Every structure is written in structure tokens, then in C-alpha cells.
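Onboarding guide, step 5: your first structure request.
Type a short instruction followed by the sequence, for example:

Predict the 3D structure of this protein.
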Amino acid sequence: MAEILAIKPAAVEGPVVAQLDKGVLRLTLANPPANALSLAVMAALTAELERAKADKAVRVIVLSAAGKVFCAGHDLKEMTARRTDADHGKTFFAETFAACATLMQAIVRHPLPVIAEVDGLATAAGLQLVASCDLAIASHEATFCTPGVNIGLFCSTPMVALSRNVSRKHAMEMLLTGETIDAATAKEFGLVNRVVPREYLNQIVTKYAQTIASKSSLVVKTGKGAFYAQAEMGLADAYAYTGRIMVENMLARDAEEGIGAFIGKRKPEWKDE
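The system replies with C-alpha cells like these:
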């Protein structure tokens, strides 16, 4: 289990390190050298995401990683070792992929915005992690790939997040070739929002996070939930659903305050209700 720290970082043992500063919770993968998504890492990350829901001090979440690799995907050594099980690893493999699906959906369904800060390689389930986040900002040195086809294990679960971020042809290009793309291409494909110099990555991600953290958390939660819900609907249903959401939002105290502040040309004072 990761440890939540207040502002000042400290040496903490564990696959995930958590640090809270000014409403921004930074969750750092600390499972070197590959930051692979072992069962322990996925459990720790999922637990931190769940814990953040109940912490009113948290307004935005940033996912980052220690070391030269953002995330190399599933721990293939851990999985291969289970081939000696009586069922040749079938039960463990199913448990691993189920845990991964739970983690990725926890990010998408999380009431708070989640930003990926990517420096280094994000491959297979590591790329899936990036694609599952609401925003992704990468350094110029970041690279991305879904190389499963090269090792006889097609990236079928990573394709779920990938295909919901980039065009079908770009997704299939990555999935079928297994080739690595650079950060500029990832931005062109729509996998990341921005590409910045490595030395400014943390600063820029923090600025994004703090900007979002300054908004009404109720409104942000409402908007994120509605965004993903309507994306799974047909056009007419999406308009009907979002119309109801906007009516509910208009009745919220923060909408009244925000609109009143806009008309009165003053800074709003959010109550998050």
C-alpha cells in the first residue's frame, strides 16, 4: 500500500508512492526498472484511486513513474512463472487481466480527473494506462507501443483504451506492426495532449492539475461522468441524457455562484455543492 504524504516527498517503500500537494494527488509508479503492472502494483494503484474518492482534499490525480520507463506493461516474468501451475497458469492469467480491467475502469469512472505524466517508454498495458487517463502530457523523450504481436500475445486488452483515443487505422497500425512511435506521433494520433521538454514536464503537468483543481469539484465530477457516459450512447440518447445533466447542474449551488460571479465580474467562491 502506498503512503499519502503531505507536500514533502519522502523515501517510501512500495510499488506506488502517493504525494498530496495543494489538491493534487501524485501517484508514482515505483517498481523499477520497468514499473511493470504486477498484481501487487495494480492492487496498490487501484487502492490509492479508491482511497482518493473519500479524501475531500484531493481534487486532481496525476499518474507518473520513477525511472527511465513509464510502464512496460504486464509483468511477463510473473506471469510466465505461473505456467507451472496445474492449470498452466490459466487462473492466474485470468486474475491478472481482470485486475487490469478493474484498474483501467477505475481511472475512467473515477470522479476526479486523472492526468498521465509520461516520460520514457509506455508499452502494452503501460500504454493502456496512459490511454485510460483523462489527459496525458508527455516529454519529448517519451515513446509508445503495443508490441504484443511481436511476442505472440496480441495486445487485445490495451486495444480497448487505445481504440477509444485514436482513429481505428492508427490503432491498427500500432497493434499490427508493434512498432514504437515517438511522442510527436503520439500527439498526432491523439494519444497525448501535449509534448514538452523533459525539464518542464513536471512543471507543466502541475500547472494543468492546479488549474483544474481550482474549479468546482462538483462541476468537474459532473462533467467527467457525463463525458464518458454520453460517449457510449447514440446521438439522440446522448442529447437527452446531457440535457438532464445540465438541468441538474444549473440547480447546483456552484452553478448559481459561478454564473452570478461571471455576471458580476468577480471571482467565484466554490462550495463544491
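Each response can be followed by summary notes, for example: Residues 90-108 form the longest helix (19 residues).
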